[in-house]
Amino acid sequence: MIDHEKIEQAVRLLLEGMGEDITREGLKDTPDRIARMYEEIYGGMDEDAGVHLAKTFTVDSSEMVIEKDITFYSTCEHHLLPFYGKAHIAYIPDGKVVGLSKLARTVEVFARRLQLQEQLTGQIADALMQYMCPKGAMVMVEAEHMCMTMRGIKKPGSQTVTIARRGVFETDPTLEERFFRMLGK
């Protein structure tokens, strides 16, 4: 649960610590704006992916389902700077599929938290396995991290790629190959 007042207090202290005058016109409402923004961008902390993945539909097919290029924005828990990119999800149904928008919503649940990309990738795959019970799931996340772009090494455009395999994707390399082919990788 986001504590609006504590965030406002913290932002005031941060601004003062930077040497800013928190009473000047441009900063007067900043603590409230930041607290409201945090309620939005960290709203995934109070969400359960199972809510989105619970509504399934019966199917006869067990062919791979892929939802690719799901744009997301998250925040690195090490530097509190954004990282953003695309998530690609595949699963092999075991009699049930989920609405495609629910896959994007699942990405959002986990992206809207303080995160590590490696953890985000695994959380998405684990949620699919837990709530949909498919034969297998595979998730690939490609992201640019502002902690590498605007500070430290300063290498804009560099991409971090993480992969999580579950179920049959761990044991059948042809499924992984098909996943990458379908993504155009």
From TrEMBL:
Keywords: GTP-binding, Hydrolase, Metal-binding, Nucleotide-binding, One-carbon metabolism, Zinc
Catalytic activity: GTP + H2O = 7,8-dihydroneopterin 3'-triphosphate + formate + H(+)
Pfam families, per the entry: GTP_cyclohydroI
E.C. number: 3.5.4.16
Enzyme class: hydrolase
Residue span, GTP cyclohydrolase I domain: 7-182
Residues reported to bind Zn(2+): C76, H79, C147
Domain of life (superkingdom): Bacteria
Pathway: Cofactor biosynthesis; 7,8-dihydroneopterin triphosphate biosynthesis; 7,8-dihydroneopterin triphosphate from GTP: step 1/1
GO molecular-function terms, A-Z: GTP cyclohydrolase I activity
Alphabetized PANTHER family for the sequence: GTP CYCLOHYDROLASE 1, GTP CYCLOHYDROLASE I
Family: Belongs to the GTP cyclohydrolase I family.
HAMAP family referenced in this protein's UniProt entry, alphabetically: FolE (MF_00223)
Subunit composition and interactions: Homopolymer.
Protein name as it appears in the record: GTP cyclohydrolase 1
Organism (species): Dorea hominis
